Amino acid sequence: QVQLVESGGGLVQAGGSLRLSCVASRIFFFSNYVIGWYRQAPGNQREWVGFISTDCDTNLADSVKGRFTISRDNAKNTVYLQMDSVKPEDTGVYYCNARGIPKWGQGTQVTVSS
How far apart are CA 105 and CA 5, in angstroms? Predict the structure, then answer.
């Protein structure tokens, strides 16, 4: 069964940076999957942050565009979310997902202090 493990979260001051990782295991041909990032703030629904295609094209939500970037290392079955110039509203649990696979990891908590 496919496993996704997110890591790299923590407490950061506004304006700072974090890099989150999403490592997939028990997955065949990781490079063939579009990988998305999502986040969920307390009391809110899970929202889409962005995705990276199999060709390494990316698309990001307007709320993070220009501040976040997504990259992937297929040799390591890993996708990264680089978060720069973070804001308090970026606080939440961040999850990754492989499109077409109904499997979520445990997420990683990001807390941005003002």
Answer: 5
Structure tokens at 112: 């941005």
Owner of token pair 């703030």: 41
| Tens-binned pLDDT, residue by residue, of the chain (114 aa) | 899 999 999 999 999 999 999 999 998 899 999 999 999 998 999 999 999 999 999 999 999 999 999 999 999 999 999 999 999 999 999 999 999 999 888 999 999 999
If you write DSSP's letter for every residue of 16-84 in order, what string do you get?
--EEEEEEEES-S-GGGS-EEEEEE-TTS--EEEEEE-TTS-EEE-TTTTTTEEEEEEGGGTEEEEEE-
At 13, which helix (H) or strand (E)? strand 10-13
